[in-house]
Amino acid sequence: MSRQHLLTIDDLGADGIEELLDLTDSFVEVSERRIPKVPVLRGKTVAWLFYEDSTRTRLSFETAARRLSADTMNFSVSSSSVNKGESVLDTVQTIEAMGVDAIVVRHGSAGVPRQITGWVDASVINAGDGWHAHPTQALLDCYTLRQHRGNIDGLRIAIVGDIKHSRVARSNVAAFTAMGADVTLVAPRTLLPPAVGLWPVEVTHSLDDVLAHVDVVYLLRMQLERQAQALVPSLREYTAEYGLTASRFARLDPDALIMHPGPMNRGVEIAADVPESPQAVVTNQVRNGVAVRMSVLFRLLGSEVDPRQLVEESFSG
User: Which residues does 98 contact at the CB level (< 8 Å), separation at least 6?
Assistant: First the structure.
């Protein structure tokens, strides 16, 4: 990651991912304390610019900033001048003129966060752009895997579902393979990207063929809001072929983990009661998202001082 922006997992590489995961350990400790707050970003201001609806990501970033003692500015697109035709350029320049140090951006079009970096001096963090990338989701998923398995290297991970429209899938493939995992994509042909043959993955159209051989099943929802046409006969048929039903869950190795970026469509890609099983780590993914985003914000906006030292000093003071 450059000192200024986080746009894709490729900005980090394996060493950068490892550095952020190590840093996250410190901020997990912060989050577990009675008063989960440290003054490491006091005086900094972080703004949220979300052109798409979000619950987990937006709240996670807001919580992360506040736990680092940063000031926050929440820009609501639905009640802003965007509805009057204001361009992204004018919007971000207005926000920067108010004195912000970082802008967290989510937009329905790929490439918008990168475009914004050319318009402002503030740090830009990509919180999801179109089908393109969602780097902090991939980081929190890597952290969750390391937390439960100790090491990502050598893990066999199946990513199942709507790969074609998923920025999470793209970022996770980049992150998981950079960390040494073997990734298999499981989807019907209609839900695979045209250039998937260039990805560093295996591809199969049968979930049943891989269930007994994987360490992690990473489920994606059907992103119907991004689909211009019907790409599966019906959700019922999709569930029959690609859903983690109760019978498929029973065939998993008892140590296999189940992951999902949310929101879950219970009864479609995952059986209604499976998320409550001990093998499902979906809640941990959400919890770890705060500490991971604290790490990203600190790495972009913090000082050159070792953050572990700052965290320890704030506890002892």
Answer: 47, 73
Q: What does the chain come to in residues?
A: 317
First-to-last CA distance in the chain? 31
Distances (CA, A) of 156 to 147, 163, 215: 16, 17, 5
pLDDT category at 231 given cuts 50, 70, 90 is confident
Domains, the chain, in order of start with CATH, read: 9-134+286-304 (3.40.50.1370), 137-284 (3.40.50.1370)
3-state secondary structure of 129: strand
19/1 Cα distance (integer angstroms): 10
- Sign of torsion, CA 111 216 57 228? positive
Residue 315 Cα to chain centre, angstroms? 29
Q: Token pair of 204, please?
A: 């199969």
Full DSSP string of 81-113: GGGGT--HHHHHHHHHHTT-SEEEEEESSTTHH
Tell me the average pLDDT across 133-140: 98
Backbone angles phi, psi at 270, to 5 degrees: -150, 135
Catalogue the active-site residues. 56-57, 84, 106, 134
CB 8 within 8 A of CB 35: no
75 CB neighbour count, 10 Å cutoff: 21
pTM of the model: 0.93
